[in-house]
């Protein structure tokens, strides 16, 4: 009989070839769930839960940051919410076109990137505008609210009339004096002109009765101010000081038969 297959080789003491043991073959076998103790499974489950709880805040923070980045990019970096309209509220003396031109906001610029205070300042440089405010109306409208100047007097110059507000700012030129505004005669109307400021100080001090009778206020010098009333009556005012006293005295004398009432020194009044 022939010998069976060799299982391995050994090295004899007589110096023969190498000796081999039996060859081992490994095989992975999935253990059943019942092979792991219940206590170990509970421990591993709790460990997984702890890892998930520890990772959850970081995952949420990463999600929030990603969402914020997407929103910021959409608002600031794209034209999706760009300016499509400039809506003007409260304008009468200035047109909507003038306001839009002064705003100088290009169409399509992201609404979130519009510098609202700077835009309001540019609009406020229009002469008839006393102040302006700018706000956003999503998704694509810029709202401009305008408060225009109110005239308190009309100054005749070069055949026309310049309308000034309570600060002495000339904001309008018209061919005739607007109804209800007294005429103020000063050489160079303006907010920095001393004579203009004196005239406005006198207007502020007038009583309702005097204002109703007033047709013109003339400033020939800082100490030479006079009022022209209806019926060509004149009130010599002097300078702009003690306006309240002068107005009170002049009002009390309106019933007198006199063409001229001098209240420049309100403690010693003369009239003729």
What does this structure look like?
With 272 residues, this protein is α/β, with parallel strands linked by helices. The protein has three domains: 43-77; 85-148, membrane protein fhac (Ubiquitin-like (UB roll), Roll); 153-271, Rossmann fold (3-Layer(aba) Sandwich). It is 31% helix and 24% strand. The strands form three sheets. Strands 7-8-9-10-11-12 form a six-stranded mixed β-sheet. Strands 1-3-2 form a three-stranded mixed β-sheet, covered by helices on one side. A three-stranded antiparallel β-sheet has the order 4-5-6, with no helix packed on it. The termini are far apart. Mean pLDDT is 84; it is low at 1-13 and 72-76.
Distance from first to last alpha carbon = 167 Å
Give me the CATH architecture of the largest domain, please. 3-Layer(aba) Sandwich
What is the spatial order of strands in the main beta sheet? 7-8-9-10-11-12
- CATH topology of the largest domain: the name is Rossmann fold
Estimate the helix proportion, in percent. 25-40%
Residue-averaged pLDDT = 84
Structural classification: alpha/beta
| CATH hierarchy class name of the largest domain | Alpha Beta
What's the order of the H and E elements?
HEHHEEEEEEHHEEEHEE
Total count of helical runs of at least 4 residues? 6
Task: Report on the biggest sheet.
Answer: 6 strands, mixed
Low-confidence segments, ≥5 residues, pLDDT <50?
Answer: 1-13, 72-76
Number of strands: 12
**Measured on Cα atoms, how large is the radius of gyration?**
46 Å
* Total count of domains: 3
Note the overall shape.
elongated
Beta-strand proportion: 15-25%
């Amino acid at each position: 009989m022939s010998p069976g297959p060799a299982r391995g080789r050994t090295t004899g003491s007589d110096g023969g070839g190498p000796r081999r043991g039996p060859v081992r073959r490994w095989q992975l076998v999935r253990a059943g769930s019942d092979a792991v103790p219940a206590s170990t499974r509970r421990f591993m489950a709790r460990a997984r839960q702890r890892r998930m709880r520890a990772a959850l805040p970081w995952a949420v923070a990463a999600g929030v940051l990603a969402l914020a980045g997407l929103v910021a990019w959409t608002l600031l970096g794209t034209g999706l919410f760009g300016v499509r309209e400039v809506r003007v509220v409260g304008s009468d003396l200035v047109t909507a076109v003038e306001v839009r031109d002064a705003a100088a906001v290009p169409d399509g610029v992201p609404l979130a990137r519009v510098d609202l205070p700077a835009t309001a300042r540019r609009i406020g440089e229009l002469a008839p505008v006393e102040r302006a405010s700018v706000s956003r109306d999503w998704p694509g409208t810029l709202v401009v609210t305008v408060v225009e100047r109110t005239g308190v007097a009309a100054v005749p110059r070069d055949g026309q009339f310049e309308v000034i507000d309570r600060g002495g700012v000339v904001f309008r030129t018209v061919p005739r004096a607007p109804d209800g505004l007294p005429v103020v005669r000063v050489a160079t109307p303006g907010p920095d002109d001393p004579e203009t400021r004196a005239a406005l100080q006198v207007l502020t001090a007038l009583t309702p009765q005097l204002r109703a009778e007033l047709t013109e206020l003339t400033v020939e010098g800082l100490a030479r101010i006079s009022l022209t009333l209806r019926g060509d009556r004149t009130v010599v005012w002097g300078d702009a000081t003690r306006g309240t006293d002068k107005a009170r005295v002049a009002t009390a004398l309106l019933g007198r038969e006199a063409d001229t009432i001098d209240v420049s020194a309100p403690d010693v009044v003369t009239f003729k």
